[in-house]
Amino acid sequence: MIDPLGRHITYLRVSVTDRCDFRCVYCMAEDMTFLPKSDVLTIEELDRLCSAFVAKGVRKIRLTGGEPLVRRGVMELITSLGRHLKSGDLKELTLTTNGSQLERHAAQLAENGIKRLNVSIDTLDSEKFEEITRGGKLDQVKAGLEAATKAGLAIKINTVVVKNFNEDQFSRLVGWCGDKGYDITFIETMPLGDIGGDRTTQYLPVSEVRKSLETDWTITDCDHNTGGPSRYTEVAETGRRIGFISPLSHNFCETCNRIRVTCTGKLFMCLGQDDDADLRAPLRASEGDELLNAAIDEAIGRKPKSHEFVIEPGHGGPALSRHMSMTGG
Ligand code: SAM
Ligand code: SF4
Fold it and tell me: What is the residue-level pLDDT of the chain in tens, covering all 329 positions?
C-alpha cells in the first residue's frame, strides 16, 4: 500500500474494543457510553481484517483499545494472528495495554510470539494513579509488569504528560525505568474526544519535560527508530531510552506509515483527521476479500498529508469528537 505522497503503509493499529476498566482523565469522560456489541467486529472478523492487511503489506500490527486485554477472545485473536509471524509475513505483533490484566496474560502473550509491550503509567504514586485513571490500582499494574518481564517481554512505559499533575514524577519514572530495564516515552495530550473539561489546562510540551529531566539525567539524541512517531534519546546513567512524542508538531507526518482500524471496522488514515472508510460493510458483504481490498485501496488513496490538531487558549474543547479509546494510541 502506497499513499499519494509515496508513503509506504506498513503499520496497522487495531482498536479491538472501545471498553476499558480505567477512565483516564485525558482519555475518557467519567460516564462513557460504549458501543453496542452488535456494532463491534467479532474476533473472526478482526482476524480476517488484519489478515487482509497483512496480505497487502502490513508488517507490524499493534493491538490497542480501549483496553485490549478486557476484550473477550483477544487471546484467540492473538494466537490466530501468530500464524503470520510464523510465516514471516508479519514482522511484529504487539500490544498497548494499561497492564491491569497483564499478570494473568503475560506468559500466553509471550508464547504467541509477542516480544514487547507498551504499558501506560503516568505516576508512581498509588493515590495519584487511582486519581488519574479514576480507579486503577498501581500495584496490579506493577504485578503485571513483573509477570511480563518474567515471561521475557520487553517493556516500554507510556507516560502522558499532564500539566499540574505529574511534573514531579518525570525524573522518578526515568530512574525507576532504569532500575527495571524499561524504556519510557513521554506523550503530549492530544485533543481527542469530549472529556468533560478543558484540555488547555492539561497541555505541557514534551520539550519542557526534556528540559526538566536534564537537571537530573544526561540525555543525548539517538537514531533509534521503532517505526512509530517517537523521537528517541539515551540516558547515560541508566543506559535506557527515553522517547518524546509531540503530536501537535508535524514532525512525524512526512514519514507516517500508519493507519488505524476501530473495533467497528472504521479505517482512519490519520489519527488527527475525521475522514474514515467503513470496512465493516465490505467485510460482511461477501466471504471473499475483493470488496474489502477495493475499499482499502480507495481509502489509502485519500490518506491526508498531516493532522490538524491545535491546543490553544480558547480552543479547549476537542479538535475531534471521537475519543482516543476509539482509535487507540
Ligand atoms: N488502554 C491502553 C493503554 O492505556 O495503554 C491502550 C489504549 S490507550 C488509548 C493508548 C495510549 O494512548 C495510552 O498510552 C494512553 O495513555 C494514551 N492516550 C489516551 N488518551 C490520550 C490523549 N488524549 N492524548 C495523548 N495520549 C493519550
Ligand atoms: Fe483506558 Fe487506556 Fe484510555 Fe486509560 S488511556 S481510559 S487505560 S483506554
Answer: 999 999 999 999 999 999 999 999 989 989 989 999 999 999 999 999 999 999 999 999 999 999 999 999 999 999 999 999 999 999 999 999 999 999 999 999 999 999 999 999 999 999 999 999 999 999 999 999 999 999 999 999 999 999 999 999 999 999 999 999 999 999 998 776 676 766 667 888 899 999 999 999 999 998 877 666 678 999 999 999 999 988 766 567 888 899 999 999 999 998 777 789 999 999 999 999 999 999 999 999 998 887 765 555 555 555 566 666 666 66
**CA 37, CA 66: separation in Å to the nearest integer?**
14
Q: Cα(201)–Cα(41) distance, rounded to whole angstroms?
A: 36
* Neighbour-count burial for 292-320, b at 16+ CB within 10 Å, e otherwise: beebbeebbeebbeebebebeeeeeebbb
Residues with CB under 6 A from ligand 2: 20, 22-24, 27-28, 65-67, 98, 120, 324-325
Distance (Å, whole) CA 184 – CA 196: 28
Which residue has the CA at smallest separation from atom 8 of ligand 1?
329
Q: If you measure from the C-alpha of residue 287 to the centroid of ligand 2, how many angstroms do you get, rounded to a whole number?
A: 34
Task: State whether the beta carbon of 325 lies less than 6 angstroms from ligand 1.
Answer: yes
CATH code for 11-327? 3.20.20.70
pTM greater than 0.85:
yes
SS3 content of the chain, % helix, strand, coil (to 5): 35, 20, 50
Please check whether residue 275 is in contact with residue 269, taking contact to mean a CB–CB distance below 8 angstroms.
Answer: yes
Span from the CA of 236 to the centroid of ligand 2 (angstroms) = 31
Q: Determine the distance separating the centroid of ligand 1 and the alpha carbon of 87, expressed in angstroms.
A: 31
DSSP assignment letter at 322: S
Question: Does 97 contact ligand 1 (Cβ within 6 A)?
Answer: yes
Per-domain residue ranges of the chain: 11-327
CA 291 – ligand 1 centroid, Å: 32
| Size of the chain in residues | 329
> Of ligand 2's atoms, which has the minimum distance to the CA of residue 96?
2
